[in-house]
Amino acid sequence: MTRFLGYVVAGLANGTIYALVALGVVVIYRISRVVNLAQGAMGVFATFCFYYVFIGDWGLPVAAAFVLTLFVGAGLGVGVERAFVGPVRKRGTLVTLVMTVGVLLLLTEATVQIWGPNTPPIPSIFPDNAIRFGGTGVTAHQFATAASVLLLAGGLFYLLNRTRYGTAIESIAEDPGAARIVGLPVRRIVTATWAIGGASAALAGMLYIHLNTLDQISLTFVLIFSLVAAVLGGFNSLPVAVLGSLGVGVTFSLAQGYVKTPGFAELVVFLALLVVLLLRQQQTSLETVAEF
Amino acid sequence: MLRSFWEDSAKRNRAIVLVLVAAAALVWPLLTSKTIHFYGALSAIYALVALSLVILAGWTGQISLGHAAFLGFGTYIGQKLLTAGVPVPIAVLAVAAFGAVISLALGIPSLRLRGVYLTIVTLAFGAACQRYFFQLESVRGFRSHTVPRPSVFGISTASDKGLYYVVLVVFAIAIFMAWNLRRSDTGRTLFAIRDSEEAAQALAVHIAPYKIGAFALSAALATTAGLFYGMLYGATPGPDQFGILQSFFLLALPVVGGLESLWGAVVGGAFLATAQPLVNVFHIRLFLASSVALILVALSGYDGVTGMIAALYRSVRDALVGRERVRYGSFVPEAEAETNGKAHVHVKVLGEAVPGSVLRLRVHGAEVEQ
After folding, report:
1. What helix, strand, coil percent values describe chain A, rounded to 5?
2. At what angle do helices B117-131 and A218-232 cross, to 10 degrees?
3. Cβ of B50 under 8 Å from any chain A Cβ?
4. In whole angstroms, what is the distance from residue A92 CA to residue A170 CA?
5. Which of A152, B131, B213, B244 is least surrounded by Cβ atoms within 10 Å, i.e. has the fewest?
6. What is the distance between the alpha carbons of residues B224 and B68, in angstroms, rounded to a whole number?
């Protein structure tokens, strides 16, 4: 039982990070109607900047570097939208999706090219002291991660579903031309939304790579789990994406804990995705009709 | 028959280009050294993968990010078959059937839905293969196994040159089949589905079987390529060689070549052959170079290198003939034309029109008056 609880807690800790990536994916999908496959790569690039440039080269304190990295992530999000995704968006979803694959490959490979195929120990601004919690230990870092995710999820939910900004995002996604005619600052809102998506990717990168010292492609594996969670909500729903991510995290952790075969957890997540899709019905509501 | 063929300049030019390229593909290995043969064979194999993605992404509009996993299954299963002494032609068929069966397991849940689901399922499949299936002792395990290189119909594949010719023959057969598919009603239906699922549905096209079928064909081609990939390397590479990064790279090949045309697959394969040595000289990573090429092509608005060449050829021809300039070509081909509110379309059907044939026409940016 203790073992079970331990796996559940560890799964929730990782699940909160999947949720963080999923939030970024959903937010970007809401504004651009594209599944940003480069989300994980953006996070990794920002995280490697954090470690090698801000802390390594510039010698900044961890907290300052942390904040700076969030801005780098936001800048990456804006840059990707301005330079790559924006220009091809009107040519259809196939090209846009291919473009995000290109950005994913570019950022991942650029990280390897610049900093080498290393797995740097990413420091955290939160302490790693274990807090005893029943029979299992949770570090302060994990608590802080969970708290920041819940905070961000709550804030985004409020922003997207309860404010005029959220309505503006919806209308821009539906028809940018009409949104411009009624006086919405379309460019600024698109930029701001991608900045949020990019910053959340950077946050996820730092938090995740601190927990599991991993290489450049690792966050793209995380992205897969996040996408599975986002599928549950049809890429539109923030609460479903968060809950789904936690579910995927726990499933993954339990599978990994009880079956020692390498990669068994990936198999379980993949099979779960197939089952979810089999149960899913074709959406007919106009709001979710998007070719891609 | 032959005379009318010769008088149709478009067909004639195409035939001349085809003969020239085919001759070049046959002759070059005789003039070059052994190390280059390896890259030639590798290119032919990648051209086969690129062709599979042209059919899936370019014609059906679905993106698979798990093709490296199919390549891997082809390599690992092919190794077992060849070691057991199965002749290559039968091994090719068996491996292709295996790939098609796996693709059904992925395609049926995801392709009956509209959207990115296939992309996500194939991505998760790629991850599961890299981390689980390929680690199994019954698939690959921790040790590398040697792949035998038996002769095929008297052609020895012991040298990379011989293997290149074998792959070339397979590629030629595959591209001929794809060409036929494209001209058939099935091909036109695939294009109709890619352009608008609603419109295709309105024409009483049952969408899911076409998409699933195209994916199965694509997967079969990719696993076939995997069999030869294993033969070329002579041993089974590790699971990370068929990981998700590899899948992204594989997608870049046909996009750079041209996602919609069959030549795009040829160019995509040739791109690898030229990029690999260049990349080795300049010490950049191959995937980095291909991602840059992918992004530049996508930003250019043309359908890959072949699309650019076609657009260039047409605009030069229009300038010479003195026709009005028309901007041709984009990722999805379109011929823009200004109309004064009334558009007229002339369609000339050459040959006999079979009842029930599908003709593809698209109108962009048109406001239909109520």
Report:
1. 75, 5, 20
2. 140
3. no
4. 18
5. B213
6. 12
Return the amino acid letter for A38. Answer: A
Chain centre distance of CA A204: 6
Q: Which residue of B has its CA nearest to A281?
A: B113
- Residues pairing with A130 in the sheet: A139
Q: What is the pLDDT along chain A (292 residues), one digit of tens a residue?
A: 677 888 888 888 888 888 988 999 999 988 888 889 999 899 989 988 888 888 888 888 888 888 999 999 999 999 999 999 988 888 888 889 999 999 999 999 888 888 877 777 777 777 777 766 655 667 788 888 888 888 888 999 998 888 988 889 888 888 888 888 888 888 889 999 999 999 999 998 888 888 776 677 777 888 888 888 888 877 888 888 899 999 998 988 888 888 878 788 888 888 988 888 888 766 544 444 444 3
Quote the crossing angle between the two packed helices A264-279 and A218-232, to the nearest 10°: 30
Q: For the packed helices B160-183 and B262-282, what is the interaxial angle rounded to 10 degrees?
A: 140
Q: Are A90 and A34 in contact (CB under 8 A)?
A: no
Residue type, B36: I
Taking an 8 Å cut-off on Cβ atoms, the answer to whether B244 and A220 are in contact is yes
Cβ atoms B181, B218 nearer than 8 A:
no
Interface test with A, best of B59, B196, B295 (most A CBs within 10 A): B295
Check CB contact under 8 Å for A263 and B125.
no
> Which residues in chain A have their CB less than 8 angstroms from residue B117's CB?
231, 277
Is the Cβ–Cβ distance between B124 and B241 less than 8 Å?
no
**Hey, what amino acid is at B224?**
T
Query: Could you give the CA distance from residue B244 to residue B85 in angstroms, rounded to a whole number?
Result: 31
Q: For residue range B119-149, what is the model confidence (pLDDT) as tens digits?
A: 999 999 999 998 888 888 888 877 888 888 8
For residue A292, list chain B residues with Cβ-Cβ distance below 8 A: 115-116
B237 φ, ψ to 5°?
-70, 165
Q: How far is CA A148 from the centre of its chain?
A: 13
User: What type of residue sits at position A30?
Assistant: R
ipTM value for the complex: 0.88
Q: Which residue has the tokens 């608005």?
A: B301
Residue A268 phi/psi, 5-degree rounding, is: -65, -45
Q: What is the pLDDT of residues B342-359, one digit of tens each?
A: 555 655 565 665 655 556
The span from the CA of B122 to the CA of B106, in Å, is 7
pTM greater than 0.80: yes
Assigned token pair, B177: 């089949």
> Phi and psi (nearest 5°) for B159?
-95, 155
Residues B155 and B87 sit within 8 Å (Cβ to Cβ): no
Q: Please, is B281 exposed, middle or buried when counting C-beta atoms within 10 Å of its C-beta (0-12, 13-18, 19+)?
A: exposed
Reported as a single tens digit per residue, the pLDDT across A243-263 is 999 999 898 888 888 887 878
Q: Which residue has the tokens 């420091």?
A: A123
